[in-house]
Write a structure and sequence with these properties.
heterodimer, A: mainly alpha, three-stranded parallel beta sheet, two-stranded parallel sheet, 13 helices, about 5% strand, elongated, B: alpha/beta, Rossmann fold, 2 domains, six-stranded mixed beta sheet, four-stranded antiparallel beta sheet, about 25% strand, globular
C-alpha cells in the first residue's frame, strides 16, 4: 500500500487522509509494507506531523513495515522532533474520566453539604461574636462602609422595588377582584391587598429582590477580593475579614430591608388603587379599608419578617463570598450559591413564621 | 534567517480614546526572529501589543500581519491576519475547567474538521513540544506558573501560527523556570520557524532570547531606540537607554 502525502500538509488535506486512508492502514499487519511517500511535500504543519506520527505509531502496534520516500526530509525531521515510543499510548486515555458513578456522586454531595453546613455555622458564630463586641463598643463599626452598602442595597434598589411592588399590587387586585366581584364585595379587595402586602408579599418580594441584587453582589465582591488575595492581606494585618468586610454588609442589608419593604407595600397599595379606581370604587373608600386592615400587628409582623430576611440575605451572601474557591468559576459559583441559598432560607423562614403566627393567633 | 518582513507597523498612534500614548510608531519584524518590545511601566508596551493582536484599533496608522491589515481592511483580510498568529498572556489564561489536553484541543475543535483522535494526537504533540506531555490530564490549578505559561504556548501553537505574541512571558517566574522558558522559545523558533514578538522588561530574558528590540519612551511618545539588545547595552546611544539597561536611577 502506498500513501502519498499532499504537497501542502495542512488541516484540510490531512483531515481527508485521516478519514479516508487511515481505515485502510488499520487493516495492515505483520509482513505488509506501507510506502510513505513524502517526496511531493512542500510544507507540513502540526497536523501533517501528527499524521506521520500516527502512521509510525500504528506501525509499531500492528507490526507492518514502512518504506519512506523522503527527499525533503519531512519525515526525518518529524521523527527527530517527536519520540514515537512516547506516543504509544492513546492520547484519549490521558484525559481524566469524570466521576459518573451515582453512589459516589451522592456521597460526595453529602460530604459537601455537611462541610458547607459546618462552614456556615462557624461563620454564623463568628458574626455573632463580632456583633456582640459591637454592642459593647459600637464605635468600632466601620460606619462609612456600612452607609455605602446601605446606599447600594437600599437607595439603588428603590426603583426596581417600587416597580415590582406596584405591579404586585396591580396583579393581586385584578386576581382577587375577579373572584370577589361575583359576590359584589370587590371593595374588600382593598383589605386583602393591605393584609397580603403588609404581612406576606411586601417582605417576601423585597427579600427576593435583595437576594438577587444585593446577596449576589456581596458574594461576588468578597469572592473577587478573595481571588485577588485581598482577604489574605486583611488576615495578615490581623483585621478579621468577617468584622471588616462582612459585618458592615450584613448590618446594611438587615436595616435596609424593612425600609425597602415599606416602599414595596406603598407601591403595591397604589397599584391596587389604580385597579379599583377602574372598577368605580372611590379612592376614599379604598383608603378607609386599607387603614382599617393595616393594624399595628400586621405592620409589625411584616417588619420583623423583613429584618430577619435582610439578615439572612446578608449572612448567606457574605458567607459564600468569603468561602469562594480560588478558581476562574469560583466567583460565579459563589454568587449563584448566595442567591439560591438566600431564596431557600427565606422560603423556609417564611413557612416557619406562618406556622408560628398561626399558633400564636396573631 | 531571511530578511523578510512578517509584521509591518506603520505610523501607528497607539492609545485609547482621544489621547495617544504613542505617536507615529513604525517598525518591522522579520520572519523567524525573536523581537522584543521594551520600555518602562506605562510607556505603552501593552497598548501597542493590543493593537498588534487586534484587540483594540489604533488611533492612527496601520498594522500588517504577513501583508494583511488587521484593522481598516475587509473582514476576510482581518480573519486571515488573525489566523497567522497566536497569543499568550501574562497569567497563561488557560481555561480552569479543562485539562491541559482539552485546553490545547479547543482551537482545533473550533477551527478544524479533524476527527477526535487526530485532534487529541495533535494536542498531545504540542504539549510534547513544550515538555508537558506527561501533564496532559492535569488541570491548570494543579500546575506551577511556569508550566501554565508553557501550556499557554502549546495552546497558542495548536493551529500552527507563524507568529507568537508573548506578553511578559518571564514575569513572576524564578530564574531557572524563566531560563527554561527562554530555551523553549529559542527551540520553537529554530525547529518550527516561529516568529516571536515579546513584550518584556526582564533584562535577563531579553539578552537570552531577543534578536532585535525596540525601546518605547514615555516622554517622547515614540521609539527611543531600535537594535540588538547586547549592542544597546554595550553602546547605549543616550542616558535613558543606559539607565534602563544598567538599572540606574534617574539623576535628581
Amino acid at each position: 500500500m502506498t500513501l502519498h502525502l499532499p504537497e501542502v500538509c495542512s488541516s484540510e488535506s490531512v483531515t481527508l487522509l485521516w478519514r479516508d486512508v487511515l481505515p485502510d492502514v488499520a487493516r495492515l499487519g505483520a509482513g505488509d509494507t506501507l510506502v510513505l511517500d513524502a517526496n511531493g511535500v512542500k510544507t507540513c504543519d502540526g497536523v501533517g506531523e501528527a499524521l506521520i506520527v500516527e502512521i509510525f505509531r500504528r506501525s509499531a502496534q500492528q507490526g507492518f513495515a514502512i518504506s519512506r520516500q523522503d527527499e525533503n526530509r519531512i519525515i526525518a525531521e518529524t521523527l527527530a522532533l517527536f519520540d514515537i515510543a512516547s506516543f504509544a499510548e492513546d492520547p484519549a486515555s490521558t484525559n481524566p474520566k469524570r466521576n459518573t458513578h451515582t453512589n459516589e456522586q451522592m456521597g460526595e454531595a453529602a460530604v459537601r453539604i455537611y462541610d458547607d453546613l459546618c462552614e456556615q455555622m462557624s461563620f454564623l458564630g463568628e458574626v455573632a461574636c463580632f456583633a456582640f463586641s459591637l454592642l459593647i463598643r459600637p464605635g468600632r463599626l466601620r460606619l462609612r462602609d456600612t452607609m455605602l452598602h446601605f446606599e447600594r442595597a437600599g437607595i439603588d434598589a428603590l426603583p426596581i422595588t417600587l416597580l415590582i411592588g406596584f405591579l404586585m399590587g396591580l396583579i393581586l387586585a385584578f386576581l382577587s377582584a375577579a373572584s370577589l366581584k361575583q359576590f359584589g364585595v370587590e371593595v374588600y379587595v382593598a383589605d386583602l391587598i393591605a393584609i397580603g402586602l403588609f404581612r406576606e408579599l411586601g417582605p417576601l418580594i423585597t427579600a427576593i429582590i435583595l437576594a438577587g441584587r444585593t446577596g449576589s453582589a456581596f458574594a461576588a465582591e468578597l469572592g473577587t477580593m478573595k481571588v485577588n488575595e485581598e482577604i489574605d492581606a486583611l488576615t495578615t494585618f490581623d483585621l478579621p475579614p468577617v468584622f471588616f468586610l462582612a459585618l458592615p454588609r450584613i448590618i446594611a442589608s438587615t436595616l435596609v430591608m424593612p425600609l425597602l419593604s415599606i416602599f414595596a407595600v406603598i407601591a403595591g397599595l397604589l397599584g391596587g388603587l389604580v385597579v379599583l379606581s377602574g372598577m368605580d370604587i372611590p379612592a376614599v373608600t379604598y383608603w378607609q379599608h386599607v387603614i382599617q386592615s393595616s393594624t399595628l400587628n400586621n405592620i409589625l409582623l411584616g417588619l420583623i419578617k423583613s429584618l430577619i430576611f435582610g439578615l439572612l440575605v446578608g449572612l448567606v451572601g457574605c458567607s459564600h463570598g468569603l468561602q469562594t474557591a480560588r478558581t476562574a468559576d469560583g466567583v460565579g459559583r459563589a454568587a449563584t450559591a448566595a442567591v439560591v441559598g438566600s431564596l431557600i432560607l427565606i422560603t423556609i423562614f417564611d413557612g416557619i413564621f406562618a406556622v408560628l403566627f398561626y399558633l400564636l393567633g396573631i | 534567517m531571511t530578511e523578510e518582513n512578517i509584521i509591518n507597523v506603520e505610523q501607528v498612534d497607539a492609545g485609547y480614546g482621544a489621547f495617544p500614548i504613542l505617536e507615529n510608531v513604525s517598525f518591522t519584524v522579520q520572519r523567524s526572529e525573536v523581537f522584543a518590545i521594551l520600555g518602562g511601566s506605562g510607556c505603552g508596551k501593552s497598548t501597542l501589543l493590543k493593537h498588534m493582536i487586534g484587540l483594540n484599533p489604533p488611533l492612527g496608522g496601520q498594522i500588517l500581519i504577513m501583508g494583511d491589515r488587521i484593522f481598516g481592511g475587509t473582514a476576510e483580510e482581518r480573519e486571515r491576519a488573525m489566523r497567522h498568529f497566536g497569543v499568550t498572556y501574562q497569567s497563561g489564561a488557560l481555561f480552569g475547567s479543562m485539562t491541559l489536553l482539552e485546553n490545547v484541543c479547543l482551537p482545533l475543535e473550533v477551527f478544524t474538521d479533524l476527527p477526535r483522535d487526530a485532534r487529541l494526537l495533535v494536542a498531545s504533540m504540542k504539549l510534547d513540544l513544550v515538555g508537558l506531555k506527561n501533564f496532559a490530564s492535569y488541570f491548570p490549578a494543579d500546575i506551577s506558573g511556569g508550566m501554565k505559561k508553557r501550556a499557554a504556548i502549546a495552546r497558542a501553537l495548536a493551529l500552527d501560527p507563524k507568529i507568537l505574541f508573548l506578553d511578559e512571558p518571564s514575569a513572576g517566574l524564578d530564574p531557572i523556570t524563566a531560563a527554561e522558558l527562554d530555551r523553549l522559545i529559542l527551540r520553537l523558533r529554530d525547529t518550527q520557524g516561529i516568529t516571536f514578538v515579546v513584550v518584556t522588561h526582564e533584562l535577563a530574558s531579553l539578552f537570552a532570547i531577543a534578536d532585535r528590540c525596540i525601546m518605547l519612551d514615555k516622554p517622547t511618545r515614540g521609539i527611543l531606540v531600535e537594535g540588538r539588545p547586547a549592542d544597546l547595552r554595550d553602546h547605549p546611544p543616550c542616558a535613558a537607554v543606559r539607565a534602563f539597561f544598567n538599572r540606574e536611577l534617574p539623576h535628581e
